Amino acid sequence: MEKPVIGITLDHEDDQKYSLMPYYALRDNYITATEKYGGIPILLPYVNSEIDNYLQFIDGLIITGGNFDIAPNLYGDDKIHSKTSLKENRTSFEWNITKAAMRLNKPILGICGGMQLLNVIMGGDLIQHIADEIDDALEHEVKPHDQAAHNINIKENSLLFKLAEEKKIYGVNSSHHQAVKNIPDNMIASAISSDSVIEAIEHLNYKFMLGVQWHPEYLLTALDKNIFKEFINAAK
User: Fold this and answer.
1) Alpha carbon of 152 to those of 24, 66, 148, 209: distances in Å?
2) Coil, strand, or helix at residue 118?
3) Catalytic (active site) residue 112
4) What is the rounded CA–CA span in Å between residue 233 and residue 184?
5) What pTM value is reported for the model?
6) Which residue among the candidates 12, 94, 112, 199 is catalytic per the annotation?
7) What is the helix (H) or strand (E) element at residue 108, kind and residue range?
8) For the stretch 77-87, what's the b/e string if a residue is b when 16 or more beta carbons lie within 10 angstroms of its beta carbon?
9) What is residue 140's predicted lDDT score, i.e. its pLDDT?
10) Is 129 a catalytic residue?
């Protein structure tokens, strides 16, 4: 069987840290994790006019994380929190390619902000700043990113439960100040932290649509590895 081609979205910066001109950026562990479990990684610049062409040759889509937030107007909120930071060109591209991939039933893995985007696309909304809405919230913005921030509880009879292989409390390397709030009817919360923050969502009636709030591309646990294995197998 041929290896599946996995499209991976990019971040975009104009901070002049790498180049005086705007540039795309992506940590290489998204690429190495995809390659390790049998996928061919392809990086996707924000060319909306080429989305149909992209989807002709990719078999699965990873929506990556980044240091930015989803525009609140996309989920019906007319206020923007002082800590909310937007990258509207990125969100527009990721929104469009995700919707197009869904029409073709392509497997989709949303990581961190990618999970939040999936929830909004499906009709859910977000908490703009966790500390403002959840009393006694855990610290969800933990660095370095290769260390566990907090534990999650996994819902039985979910895809994530299958990938965890038993009902476990896993330590995850989470780093986010926003979170999924209300989930649409056709999705479930398959992992929740002890402060009630939703840490994973999945679609009930789709070939493979999983969103996780942490960063499994670091491959820190057996669960992280199984997420990539299952996603890439679904893309074959």
Assistant:
1) 32, 21, 11, 19
2) helix
3) yes
4) 26
5) 0.96
6) 112
7) strand 108-111
8) beeeeeebeeb
9) 86
10) no
